[in-house]
Design goal:
Layout (H helix, E strand, L loop, with lengths): L27 E12 L2 E12 L3 E5 L6 H8 L7 E6 L8 H5 L2 E4 L11 H12 L5 H10 L13 H14 L4 E5 L7 H16 L4 E5 L3 H7 L2 E6 L2 E7 H6 L1 E8 L16 E6 L2 E7 L2 H11 L2 E8 L2 H8 L12 E2 L1
Parallel strand pairs: 3-7, 3-8, 5-6, 6-7, 11-14
Antiparallel strand pairs: 1-2, 1-4, 8-9, 10-12, 10-13, 11-12
Helix pairs in contact: 4-5, 5-6
Length: 334
Amino acid sequence: MSDTLEKPAKTAPQGERPDMKSPPGEKRVMEAIGLGCRFGRRWVVRGLDLAVPEGSVTALLGRNGVGKSTTIQMLLGLLPASEGTVSVLGLDPRRRRAEMFSRLGYVSERRELLEERTVSGLARIVAAVHGERFDRDGFEALRARYKLESGSRCSTLSKGQRARLLLSLALMAKPEVLVLDEPTSGLDVVVRDDFLEAIASFVAEEGRAVLLSTHLIEDVARICDRAVIMREGAAALSGEIESLRASVSRYVVRLTGVLPESGPLGLPRGVVVVERDPRAITVVAQGAPEHFEAALEAALPVEGIERRPATLKETFTCLTEPCTQPGPGSEARA
């Protein structure tokens, strides 16, 4: 298989995309329509629609391997798209990358630094790129708060110190948009709390926006108000966090008989089994409760069904369930 990107495909993405027109009064600082990327014959991302409104913290969610980091690289012009269009702050990121990055902050998953530079030396380089926008006093305040020695070489910094330094540099450049790719992965609780607090303060400033790629649902619950959920084999879902959560329900199903310990249950596609006991199962599913409860009663010897709101973690598990599994009886387990 070739490892080079092919030219954009002329065929349209499979599936029907939702209307991507902005609601009245909503300003989008990042937008992608029909975005796709393939290496050789393998599509990593295809037909993705994504929008980040001004003033929002938008989570980019999906299971491992669904293409979140690839999507971020395409949004920032670091990787050419095979199909679709991208706009960031009204700019084409491939053609006007320098101008875009002068107004945008980015912290990558790899937390790369100029290893031989000192903390203060790296700050001077970032300040030169952003000019008057860079808040030197603000950076020094964060550096002192995070106990980063100005003369320390970047190569000597711990994982937590690197994360704090990169966030401090990104925030004090006063970007209009902040893009974070798995920013708190591998960090201890104290550093994570610092990180999330700083992001929340950043968004509180008028007009700021954040796109946050993460697999940590706790982070999403604390600071995000919107989400784009990338799914294998289906179009992405997007909307406000609470609206997405409300679309999924948790069902505790009491049974009149005894279930075998293993084997398929014949449940509808898209159902995720959370718990399975001989006399009861707990599942999560999206859709109209009355229709789903009827499907449960048709598939199982039901004694009673209790429906509850799904947690955010259960919602994520349900909505990211791959849509390529064959036929009934292949329900997933959380």
